[in-house]
Amino acid sequence: ASLGLAGLSAAALVGGSAKRKGRSAGNASVTAVKAFENELGVQPPTGFWDPAGFCSDGDAKEFYRRRCVEIKHGRVSMLACLGYIVPEYFK
């Protein structure tokens, strides 16, 4: 049976997150879930979802920094979309 591109991507992502910083996948997910389960944005079906394992060490300061950076990048991308759309209407 052949796996689709999405299946291969998911398998590579899961395998890559297990090797991050020498921790096993099971240990990393347990630490992250316990550390950040009560954060804003955690949804009931999946709980705290960190497929890449960036928060596997449970560092609250690094989590806060990544969250702030994500918000900043989202705002910059929204402005970039406006910069692309607005000139189309005002030629």
Describe the structure.
With 91 residues, the chain is mostly helical. The protein has helices at residues 5-19, 25-36, 60-89. The mean pLDDT is 73.
Q: What attributes characterize this protein structure?
A:
0% strand; mainly alpha; 91 residues
Percent of sequence in beta strands: under 5%
For the residues shown, what is the average pLDDT?
73
Low confidence ranges: none
Count of β-strands: 0
Our Rg estimate from Cα atoms comes to 18 Å
Q: What structural category do the secondary elements indicate?
A: mainly alpha
Strand/helix succession: HHH
Instruction: Name the shape in a single word.
Output: elongated
The helix content, as a percent range, equals: 55-70%
Question: DSSP helix count?
Answer: 3
- Most strands sheet: none
Distance between the termini: 53 Å
Oligomer: single chain
TL;DR of this structure?
The protein is mainly alpha-helical and 91 residues long.
Q: Mind sketching the topology for me?
A:
Layout: H1 5-19, H2 25-36, H3 60-89
